[in-house]
Specification:
- Helix content is about 35%, strand content about 20%.
- By secondary structure, it is of the alpha/beta class.
- It folds into 3 domains: about 65-215, TIM Barrel; about 225-265, no CATH class; about 265-520, Spore Coat Polysaccharide Biosynthesis Protein SpsA, Chain A (Alpha-Beta Complex).
- Strands 9, 12, 13, 14, 16, 17, 18, 19 and 20 form a 9-stranded mixed beta sheet that branches. The protein has an 8-stranded parallel beta sheet with strand order 1-2-3-4-5-6-7-8. It has a two-stranded antiparallel sheet with strand order 10-11.
- It is elongated and about 105 Å long.
- Bound molecules: sulfopyruvate (SPV) and magnesium ion (MG).
- Magnesium ion binds near residues 23, 24, 25 and 62.
């Protein structure tokens, strides 16, 4: 299959072709010049180098007439080998050549001996025994007939050509088949059925043809498509109706191998944990306790100190260096309009169905992830500490949990091992469980709503989310983050505890929202 740059080469390879034709016509047309050696051979070399770098299948370069005499041919072969090009095809015409389909029968042919010498020079310049040299015979193009075609093929084969490309401009394959019958497979024969394109491919097989070259079809396909799209955008002055007719930007990135670069960055760049962590902010619930403040918006969008709570959260995450920010919306989702974040929609708006919401985005839970709440304001060191942790699971707790109990508000209290207050500085503290009963005798702190997962932790959570709903001590639809964390512990995983006193606020009442404005 023809290709004319790194992109078309990749597309042809992905389509399953076994080899590529670096077409002189397509390469020159794509560069905006004529197929008359207007592009220099080193310019062509640069393009085929991109094709070679971007593919793993063999490339046969259309070397025109070899771009000069035997001496240029020797240099060409060496340069192509160094670019990992599999072979070159040269045609027995004169430099500068003209495309065979432009008044072909008026074109002069090369002297047989001179051309055979060029082939020998190429063969002897090879250092890779697998590099192939294909001799292209233009006798039919020039109207010189079968005998001349056979004489030339024989001389070039004798000079060491690995294969003969027999070209023809006829609408039917009769002359090339006639050649094949007489040639009797003395070496492989290659055809270019651009003009006799209606010939069934089985007919080529029956005549013992080794390969056919679809010589310019990706170029011609792209020309037509580009013309249509350009005309349509010009006429309509709009992108609306073209968007669905063109490749998505994501497809462009895929063809460029963007994923590989992202993986390489993870492997080779110094780890900046915050940059490699993504945050999911749960902002689906209304927050009825805030009354009319949340009639037309979820509580994450209630304004505190002149901007929505969610905006404060997003700003703080960004200050902490965490920029991959994802918001799960539910209640009045159209009112959630913070810029620069990715939105996901909870399948059940307005309820504390946090596990259900996470299940709906389970595929996104990969790599290093922090899940937190859309109504919790916090200092930036908190996500930083969590992002820096190598633990598979980590949470942040507030030791001053009595404040919440005294105000009698709903909270997730934590039982740790050992007690963080009496633990020595270097001791690891792990979470035993979350409890909601403020009179539980072993409470050590209050969970601040942050769950950090390492890449491995994310994978574990994805698996837990696949379990049936009743695995969460009750219907999945009602399971909250606390249930998920207890589930992680019950499955035998350690949850590391970091602690602080204050430095956060849970805006689950209008009162807290006002306190939050002082906090900021
Ligand atoms: C090319 O693809 O550039 C060729 C084949 O040489 S043809 O255009 O048919 O001459
Ligand atoms: Mg050509």
């Amino acid at each position: 299959m023809e290709a004319h740059n790194g992109l078309s080469a990749k597309i042809a390879e992905e389509a399953g072709f076994e080899a590529l034709w670096g077409s002189g016509l397509s390469l020159s047309a794509a560069l905006g010049v004529r197929d008359n050696n207007e592009a220099t051979w080193t310019q062509i070399l640069e393009v085929v180098e991109f094709m070679s770098d971007n593919t793993s299948i063999p490339i046969l370069l259309d070397g025109d007439t070899g771009f000069g005499d035997f001496n240029t041919m020797r240099r060409l072969v060496r340069k192509l080998e160094s670019r990992n090009i599999a072979g070159v095809c040269i045609e027995d015409k004169l430099f500068p050549k003209t495309n065979s389909f432009i008044r072909g029968n008026t074109q002069p042919l090369a002297d047989i001996d001179e051309f055979a010498g060029k082939i020998r020079a190429g063969v002897e310049a090879k250092s890779d025994p697998d590099f192939v040299i294909v001799a292209r015979v233009e006798a039919f193009i020039a109207g010189w007939g079968l005998d001349e075609a056979l004489r030339r093929a024989e001389a070039y084969h004798e000079a060491g050509a690995d294969a003969i490309l027999m070209h023809s401009a006829r609408r039917d394959p009769s002359e090339v088949f006639e050649f094949a019958r007489h040639w009797q497979q003395r070496c492989p024969v290659i055809l270019v059925p651009t003009k006799y394109y209606t010939t069934p491919t089985d007919a080529f097989r029956e005549h013992g043809i080794a390969a056919v070259i679809w010589a310019n079809h990706l170029l011609r396909g792209s020309i037509e498509k580009m013309q249509q799209i350009a005309a349509q955008i010009k006429t309509e002055e709009s992108l609306t109706s073209v968007e669905d007719r063109i490749a998505a930007v994501g497809e462009v990135f895929r063809l460029q191998g963007a994923t590989e670069l992202a993986e390489a960055e993870r492997r080779y760049l110094p780890a900046k944990s915050a940059e490699q962590t993504k945050a999911f902010i749960l902002a689906a619930v209304r927050g009825e306790e805030m009354g009319e403040l949340t009639e037309d918006r979820p509580k994450a969008m209630v304004e505190v100190g002149g901007k929505p709570i969610l905006q404060h959260i997003v700003d703080t995450y960004r200050q902490a260096g965490i920029r991959d920010l994802n918001v799960i919306r539910g209640y009045k989702k159209e009112a959630v309009t913070v810029d620069g974040v990715n939105y996901f929609d909870s399948p059940d708006d307005g309820r504390r169905a946090e596990v259900l919401a996470l299940t709906s985005i389970a595929d996104e839970l990969e790599g290093s992830v922090i899940v937190s709440y859309g109504d919790v304001l916090f200092r930036r060191f908190i996500p930083r500490v969590l992002a820096d942790s190598a633990a598979d699971f980590a949470v942040m707790i507030d030791l001053n949990w009595q404040a919440s109990r005294n105000r009698n508000r709903y909270a997730d209290y934590v039982v740790c091992r050992p007690d963080p207050v009496s633990a020595s500085f270097y001791q690891e503290i792990t979470l035993e469980k979350l409890v909601t009963d403020p009179s539980h005798p072993d409470i050590h702190g209050e969970w601040m709503g942050f769950l950090k997962m390492s890449p491995k932790g994310s994978a574990i959570v994805r698996e837990l989310l696949e379990e049936p709903g009743d695995a969460f001590d009750g219907p999945l639809k009602q399971a909250d983050m606390g249930a998920l964390i207890n589930k992680i512990i019950a499955a035998g995983h350690d949850v590391k505890v970091f602690h602080t006193t204050g430095n956060w606020i849970d805006c689950d009442s209008a009162l807290d929202a006002i306190a939050g404005s002082q906090f900021q």
